[in-house]
Specification:
By secondary structure, the chain is α/β, with parallel strands linked by helices. The chain has 16 helices and 17 strands. It has helices spanning 15-28, 53-62, 68-71, 78-86, 93-105, 129-136, 149-163, 180-193, 206-209, 213-220, 245-254, 267-274, 291-300, 311-319, 330-343, 346-353; strands at residues 2-8, 33-36, 39-40, 43-46, 49-52, 74-75, 110-114, 139-145, 167-175, 198-203, 211-212, 223-224, 234-235, 237-240, 258-263, 278-284, 303-306. Helix 1 packs parallel to helix 2, helix 7 packs parallel to helix 8 (180-193) and helix 12 (267-274) runs parallel beside helix 13. The longest helix is centred in the middle third of the chain and has 15 residues, at 149-163. The radius of gyration is 22 Å and the shape is globular.
């Protein structure tokens, strides 16, 4: 029985997508796969019970028999946290997680444990990532989201420091095209010399990070003002229109499939947005726009959303969820599976986990040529 704990250095790095894509690959190779998310900071109600949304999705994608609340044994709600900190709740949570791991392992060949959204999570309730990984997992895979040249190195080194010998490797995710040469030619060789196995480097794919307009409407509790409304249209970038129309127009022209957030009274910004590649306008402060704006938006196929919150509050609400690889659409998971196969050295990962590469000959060697097989020692 093998177990792999998949975690990330920071939130919205692609951890859930990696976990599920690996689970599908293990299943394709004939392995029975279990899943557990030991700690969740994102309560979600399903069938009247508190669980984790990612766990519910994992149940569906991997075809698991267990219920979502069994796959997420510790879900931190505000009430849970207060009871824990006040001393009212004396449950040994680490033991509870271990018991859940034992149940999730039953009858499986591989157990995937989805770790916290960052290496800082879990300390307040006694379930920090290093402790859970040490107690429940054989190996740890860390996802490092590319931010800049220095940070990608610091994040990888931080993962090694926190996780120690449990770390079997990292995957660097969301690498922009203009940073690809630095990552492959400089960062990867350096990290390998530091005994950090870089198992893959995934390019930035904006469509994977995009949100549907319908998701924005739900998150913002927005009113749709236009007749044109395509719920599944994608927003790939966010921009705030808070400057002069002349200044903002040049920036708008550089961004495609964007949502423009601006005050309902800023007709100049709204018109500038409609002249460029804009998916939707988000008008803040509950200020209704000119009928001219609504008319032109309908003509250009741009949805106009009206929200009660001010611009800052609106941006903060979106940023809490934007950038997460939201996998509710099957096409997104399939796209990520393809990325994983093309850019991750799966043969090297299998070797680290001591798993037999059962059907490699049927995959046209996908996933084995993304990076040179450099020894991690």
């Amino acid at each position: 029985m093998k177990s792999l704990y998949v975690t990330s250095v920071e939130r919205h790095s692609g951890k859930t997508a990696t976990c599920l894509a690996l689970g599908k690959r293990f299943q394709a190779d004939g392995y029975r796969v279990g899943y557990l998310k030991p700690l969740s900071l994102q309560p979600w109600r399903v069938a009247g019970r508190v669980a984790d949304e990612d766990a519910a999705f994992a149940k569906e994608v991997l075809g698991l028999a267990a219920e979502p609340w069994d796959l997420s044994p510790v879900v931190v709600t505000p009430e849970f946290l207060r009871a824990r900190l006040s001393g009212e709740m004396k449950t040994d949570l680490l033991q509870k997680v271990q018991t859940a791991c034992k149940a999730a392992r039953a009858g499986q060949d591989v157990l995937l444990l989805e770790g916290g959204g960052s290496l800082r999570e879990g300390y307040a309730v006694g379930l920090p990532t290093p402790a859970v990984a040490a107690r429940c997992s054989g190996d740890v895979l860390a996802i490092v989201k590319y931010r800049d040249e220095v940070r990608v190195l610091d994040d990888a080194l931080t993962a090694r420091t926190r996780l120690g010998e449990k770390l079997c490797g990292i995957i660097i995710n969301r690498v922009p095209a203009d940073a690809a040469a630095f990552v492959s030619d400089v960062a990867v060789p350096y990290l390998e010399r530091q005994s950090i196995a870089v198992l893959g480097v995934l390019p930035e794919v904006r469509s994977l990070e995009a949100m549907m307009v319908a998701e924005l409407v739900e998150v913002l509790e927005a009113e749709v003002l236009t007749e044109h409304y395509s719920p599944e249209e994608l927003v790939e970038t966010l921009t705030v229109g808070a400057m002069t129309a002349e200044t903002v127009l040049s920036r708008f022209r550089k961004q495609t499939n964007k949502a423009v957030i601006t005050g309902g009274d800023r007709i100049d910004i709204q018109l500038a947005a409609l002249e460029t590649s804009t998916t939707c306008l988000i008008l803040t402060g509950n200020l209704r726009p000119s009928p001219l704006i609504v008319k032109q938006a309908n003509e250009f196929g741009v949805a106009v959303l009206l929200v009660r919150t001010n611009t800052l509050e609106t941006v903060e609400a979106i940023e809490r969820v934007f950038g997460k690889t939201r996998l509710g659409q099957p096409a997104k998971l399939q796209q990520f599976q393809k990325l994983l196969a093309e850019h991750v050295d799966l043969g090297r990962l299998y070797k680290a986990l001591d798993l037999e590469w059962r059907t490699a000959q049927h995959h046209d060697h996908q996933g084995t040529g993304a990076l040179p097989h450099t020894p991690s020692a």
